[in-house]
């Protein structure tokens, strides 16, 4: 039960979080309809969807540290949803790139990969997200057991690939890359510290 409230209110909170994560896409659709995306709308669409893919992925990564350090156990209820939104926005980001930048032309895609290898890194991150999304259900968790945990540790590799993608594509300001990198560094350091303390405790036992 979220925040110790009754099931009806808990469901309401779930719906609010769901709609909050969907809102960026609705806002983008509104801007497209009103043609408010500036001189290069294709580039803006691709960038916007990529930004929300990263935000959603980073939010899912922060659930565990907040649960462990601040006892925000109620956040776990939303981790799967946020993770699926990360996959959703990343797929839209990739499709937008293929549609508006490449035009689904194979020769242009190969040229983009050779001239901008960060695109290949980003595409690899999206592909690695796919098995995590497909196995995110409780049924798959029960079926895979310990292998499920091992599989979903891929999210840390994916997050590093995303950071490589972001840093590599920077041409001017590193502000966004620094913010994303700082938030990811905190998550990774917290995990290393947690694993180290757990290892020390098991050795003492």
Task: Summarize the helix and strand pattern as letters.
Answer: HHHHHHHHH
Shape verdict: globular
Number of strands: 0
SS element count, helices:
9
Mean pLDDT: 91
End-to-end separation in angstroms reads 34 Å
Beta-strand share of residues: under 5%
Biggest pleated-sheet summary? none
Helix content: over 70%
Q: How many separate domains?
A: 1
Strand pairing plus helix content: what structural class? mainly alpha
**Estimated radius of gyration:** 19 Å
Low-confidence stretches at least 5 residues in length (pLDDT < 50)? none
Describe what this molecule looks like in 3D.
- With 205 residues, this protein is an all-alpha fold.
- It has one domain.
- The protein has helices spanning 7-33, 41-70, 76-102, 106-115, 117-134, 138-144, 146-152, 154-169, 175-204.
- Helix 2 (41-70) packs antiparallel against helix 3 (76-102).
- The longest helix is centred in the N-terminal third of the chain and has 30 residues, at 41-70.
- The chain is globular.
- The mean pLDDT is 91.
